[in-house]
Specification:
This protein is mainly α. It has two domains: about 15-55, no CATH class; about 60-170, AhpD-like (Up-down Bundle), CATH 1.20.1290. The protein is about 65% helix and about 0% strand. The protein has helices at about 15-25, 30-35, 40-55, 60-75, 80-90, 95-105, 110-125, 135-140, 145-170.
Length: about 170
């Protein structure tokens, strides 16, 4: 059970209507995380803007980014984030078999760039961001600086989302 009540649709703050509209368009719903953060509209708006830039926008394909989001959620042990991003990954064309392999850190069926990015995401989570030079070099062989920033930003916001989900006691919705 959530530790903080969620803002219900009939009580959505006026200043969040556009954010919630965007969420309904991109996610098909307003997730519990955003309904909880809605108690502080400026925090929700900032969180959503960052998440949108890292996940919904950018140059890398959404399915690829959902694989990363799912892996971070699994590493962090977040049922809330794992459930959400597992569903989004499937919606964006990632197969159930791919998700199962990613959950096991088995990247053999993925292309070398995706595998490097998932290894990088694991290293970021496990080392609190202290990723070694060898892994950075491996990542740079497949991605531009702009894309590496996009990947690292996604891992960072997913790490935060998992922390908030645990703090607020959010369950998969």
């Amino acid at each position: 059970m959530p530790r903080i009540p969620m803002v219900e649709p009939h009580n959505e703050p006026a200043e969040l209507r556009e954010v919630f509209k965007q969420l309904r368009q991109t996610r098909g719903r307003v997730p519990g995380m955003y309904r909880t953060l809605a108690h502080r509209p400026e925090i929700l708006a900032a969180h959503r803007a960052y998440f949108h830039a890292a996940l919904d926008a950018g140059t890398l394909p959404r399915a690829f980014k959902e694989k990363i989001a799912y892996r971070v959620a699994r590493l962090r042990g977040s049922a809330y984030c794992t459930g959400s991003h597992g569903r989004y990954a499937l919606k964006h064309g990632v197969s159930g078999e791919e998700l199962d392999a990613i959950a096991r850190s088995d990247y053999r069926a993925l292309d070398a760039g995706e595998a490097a990015a998932l290894e990088f995401a694991e290293a970021m989570v496990r080392s609190a961001g202290a990723v070694g030079e060898g892994l950075m070099t491996k990542l740079a062989a497949h991605f531009s600086a702009k894309e590496i920033v996009e990947i690292a930003a996604l891992v960072g916001i997913m790490d935060l989302a998992c922390t908030l989900a645990a703090t607020f006691g959010l369950q998969p919705d």
